């Protein structure tokens, strides 16, 4: 079985590296492109939601829409109470200052988290671009607010740190752009907005910053042919400067999500709990109520480090990648609670990364006997990893899924040493865990048993 997995991996790597195929602007052709191997091996990424919505930093990153689109009373009352009559969303632009933004400091935090890639929101649904887009005149970070190209600064700092891949998020639609709303009123039979705004921005992002992930979002309920998505993706895969390494998601027009594109995202915070036929990603937030920074957040709104590790383990066990989101402040800081969570995840990965990075899903995702045990594998190394989310109180743990052989199977606790085990009558094995003081524990939150010589 391990030989088959290894051969398949080599064939896939060959196809990704050396394939000279030309992709046609059809979903059948676009969907046939293999996912570049680096993405599946990476497993962990950092999502960054940053924009003008970080100035009011209230409710969510959809602040403008909830305030003036659907006029949610909670948002309307907030504005009436705190800002003068006639204040517009555009007035928040100059307040997006980013004076404390230090790209190298951000990259240090992201690298310490154990993540292997980042995805920065270059433009959310508000239309404000974090780079000097010539298609977003006077509504971008070079002309307004910071008067700096924030995408360029972060991408430059990232490339100086070779362990991280650059990903860029881009919203196809914009809530209040007059051209989009004109096309919408015409039932998308005209395409003034994508041809003059959205598509030129996408080409600009790719040619200027050369991202290895292009994370599309926000179709505005417009179909993929309105966005000319397949033609753009054919160019991206055939002729762009990142054609061999770039990875894309599935949000390229109404009806494409969880159906077309590169990896699947399906819904926000997607965690199916089982294997999918295609590579997928769980994009989720540390602040459970928002992707953007919120000043009114309280401690209980944030996931604990244990919650994050649990989600990471479940996601990777089922063949997914975890994209974990932070929301920086308007002045460019990553709040200490976000930094703490990321650095603690990195501490856990320093011990247990062997069971996460470059692994594959095993034949069983979770254990058949003991709850809270999830599996990953490295077939080429004949290794199985059993990650338990809780430390047993009786000094041992039963694993029902592995098939073991006395004299051949070995079990080790990552970060510690080899452990004793014995077979159990019903099948599987009982592993005896050491009695350790808190200071002797190899890590916190979850622990990994490495099995070799098992099947």
Automatic annotation (TrEMBL):
Domain Alpha-L-fucosidase C-terminal, chain residue ranges per copy: 365-452
User: Which reaction is recorded as catalysed by this protein?
Assistant: an alpha-L-fucoside + H2O = L-fucose + an alcohol; a neolactoside IV(2)-alpha-Fuc-nLc4Cer(d18:0) + H2O = a neolactoside nLc4Cer(d18:0) + L-fucose; a neolactoside IV(2)-alpha-Fuc-nLc4Cer(d18:1(4E)) + H2O = a neolactoside nLc4Cer(d18:1(4E)) + L-fucose
Q: What residue stretch is flagged as signal peptide?
A: 1-21
Q: Does the keyword Glycoprotein apply?
A: yes
A GO CC annotation recorded here is: lysosome
**Main enzyme class:** hydrolase
**SUPFAM superfamilies in UniProt:** (Trans)glycosidases
What keywords is this UniProt entry annotated with?
Glycoprotein, Glycosidase, Hydrolase, Signal
Q: Which residues form the Glycoside hydrolase family 29 N-terminal domain?
A: 20-354
Q: Where is this site: May be important for catalysis?
A: 283
KW Signal (keyword) present: yes
Q: Record's superkingdom?
A: Eukaryota
Give the InterPro entries listed for this entry: FUC_metazoa-typ, Fucosidase_C, GH, Glyco_hydro_29, Glyco_hydro_29_CS, Glyco_hydro_29_N, Glyco_hydro_b
Which EC number applies? 3.2.1.51
MF terms per GO, please?
alpha-L-fucosidase activity
GO terms classed as biological process: fucose metabolic process; glycoside catabolic process
Q: Name one Pfam family in it.
A: Alpha_L_fucos
Instruction: Describe its assembly.
Output: Homotetramer.
Q: What does the sequence similarity comment in the record state about its family?
A: Belongs to the glycosyl hydrolase 29 family.
Q: Which protein are we looking at?
A: Alpha-L-fucosidase
Q: Which organism is it from?
A: Alosa alosa
Lineage summary? Eukaryota, Metazoa, Chordata, Craniata, Vertebrata
């Amino acid at each position: 079985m391990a030989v088959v997995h290894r051969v398949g991996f080599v064939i896939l790597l060959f196809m990704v590296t050396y394939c000279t195929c030309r992709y046609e602007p059809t979903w059948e052709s676009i969907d046939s492109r293999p996912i570049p191997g680096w993405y599946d091996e990476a497993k962990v990424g950092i999502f960054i939601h940053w924009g003008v919505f970080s100035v009011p930093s209230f409710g969510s990153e959809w602040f403008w829409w909830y305030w003036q689109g659907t006029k949610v009373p909670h948002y309307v009352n907030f504005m009436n109470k705190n800002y003068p009559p006639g204040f517009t969303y555009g007035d928040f632009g100059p307040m997006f200052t980013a004076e404390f933004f230090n790209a190298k400091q951000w990259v240090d935090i992201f690298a310490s988290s154990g993540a292997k890639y980042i995805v920065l929101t270059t433009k959310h649904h508000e239309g404000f671009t974090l780079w000097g887009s010539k298609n977003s005149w006077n509504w971008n970070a070079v002309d307004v607010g910071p008067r700096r190209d924030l995408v360029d600064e972060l991408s430059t700092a990232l490339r100086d740190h070779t362990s991280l891949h650059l990903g860029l998020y881009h919203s196809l639609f914009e809530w209040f752009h007059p051209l989009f709303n004109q096309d919408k009123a015409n039932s998308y039979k005209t395409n003034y907005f994508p041809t003059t705004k959205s598509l030129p921005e996408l080409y600009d992002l790719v040619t200027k910053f050369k991202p290895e992930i292009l994370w599309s979002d926000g179709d505005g309920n417009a179909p993929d042919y309105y966005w000319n998505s397949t033609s753009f993706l054919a160019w991206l895969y055939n002729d762009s400067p990142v054609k061999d390494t770039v990875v894309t998601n599935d949000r390229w027009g109404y009806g494409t999500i969880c159906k077309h594109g590169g990896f699947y995202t399906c819904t926000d915070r997607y965690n199916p709990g089982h294997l999918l036929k295609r590579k997928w990603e769980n994009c989720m937030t540390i602040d459970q109520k928002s992707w953007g920074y919120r000043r009114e957040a309280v401690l209980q709104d944030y996931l604990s480090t244990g919650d994050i590790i649990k989600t990471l383990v479940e996601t990777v066990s089922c063949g997914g990648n975890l994209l974990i989101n932070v929301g920086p402040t308007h002045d460019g800081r990553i709040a200490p609670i976000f930094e703490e969570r990321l650095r603690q995840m990195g501490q856990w990965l320093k011990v247990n990364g062997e069971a996460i990075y470059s692994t594959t899903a095993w034949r069983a995702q979770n254990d058949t006997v003991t709850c809270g045990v999830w599996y990953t594998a490295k077939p080429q190394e004949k290794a199985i990893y059993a990650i338990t989310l809780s430390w047993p109180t009786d000094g041992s743990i039963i694993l029902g899924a592995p098939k073991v052989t006395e004299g051949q199977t070995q079990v080790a606790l990552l970060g510690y040493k080899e452990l004793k085990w014995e077979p159990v009558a019903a099948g599987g094995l009982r592993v005896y865990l050491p009695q350790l003081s808190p200071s002797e524990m190899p890590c916190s939150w979850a622990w990994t048993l490495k099995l070799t010589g098992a099947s």
